[in-house]
C-alpha cells in the first residue's frame, strides 16, 4: 500500500478494516459481499463507495482496486463474519493481511480448522487431509512467528457442548501450549508434526457409530468395546493414508493410556507411554472435561486443571502441573 493513513488507521481501527488486495481479489468481482468505504484525505473521513451486493461497472471495479492499492479502501468490522468467511476459504490470506488484529487472525484460524476437521472426519480420505494439512501449516506458521500467540487460542477454547471437531481443536491448542512450555529446542517441522498429531488424535472416533456417541444411558459391553477400539481404528486410518509418524501414533494410540496401567487400548504403564502420548493424554482429558458430554457436565478450565494435577497416579504431573499453574495465575 503506497499511502500512509496511520492517523486514519488509528481513528478507524476499532470500526473498520483497511482491506488488503488479496482479500479484495477473493470477493466476487462485480458484486462485493459487503459495504466498501473510501477514505477521503481532505476531510479525514470515510464515505460509502458501494453497498453490499451492488452491481459494479468495469470502471468502478478498476477504481476500487486502485483505491485498495493506495490503502484507501475499507470495510466495516461489523461485517467481520462476511469478511472472515472469505479468508476462511483461503486461510493463507491471514498471513498477508496486515490490517487484521492478532486476535482476529486467531478467530479466523479457529473457524477454518473447525471446518477442515469436520470435512476430514466426515470423509477421512487423502484429498480431505491435504486441505486440512494446508490450513494446519498456516496455523503453525502463525505460531512459529511468535510462540506466545498460542495464548490467543487458549483464551478461545470452545467450552460449549461436546463435538468431535471442537474437542480435537481444543486438544490441539492445549497440547501445543504444553509443547511450547516443555520443548525449548525444536524445529518448525517438530511443531508441524505436533499440531497435526494433536488435531487428529481422536480420528478413530469418526468410525464409532453415532448412536453410541449420542447415547445418554450407560453403554453396554459391546458399545464400550467400540469406544475402546477407536484408538486402533485411528491408527488404521493414518497408516492407510500414509502419515503415521511417531508423534501421530503416540497421540492416537496412547492418549487413553494411564501411568498406572488403568488406561487402554494396551494397558501401558509408566515409561512405556511416550512423552507425546503423556502430553496428549493431559490435553485430551482437559479438553473433554471443559465441555458438556452425555455422561458428565462441563467444569471450568481452572477446575479441570486442578483435577488433572491431583490425579498424578494416572497423568504426568509435568504437564498437568504446568496447566494448573497457568490457570492459577490467570495466564489466559
TrEMBL record:
Q: At the top level of its lineage, which domain of life is listed?
A: Bacteria
Q: Which CDD domains does this chain map to?
A: HDc
GO MF terms here are: hydrolase activity
InterPro entries from the UniProt entry: HD/PDEase_dom, HD_GYP_dom
The HD-GYP domain, residue ranges: 142-332
As recorded in UniProt, its EC number(s) are 3.1.4.-
Q: Name one Pfam family in it.
A: HD_5
Q: Does the keyword Hydrolase apply?
A: yes
Q: Where is the signal peptide?
A: none
Q: What class of enzyme is it?
A: hydrolase
Alphabetical UniProt keywords: Hydrolase
Does Disulfide bond appear among the keywords? no
What this protein is called in its record is HD domain-containing protein
Q: Which organism is it from?
A: Halodesulfovibrio aestuarii
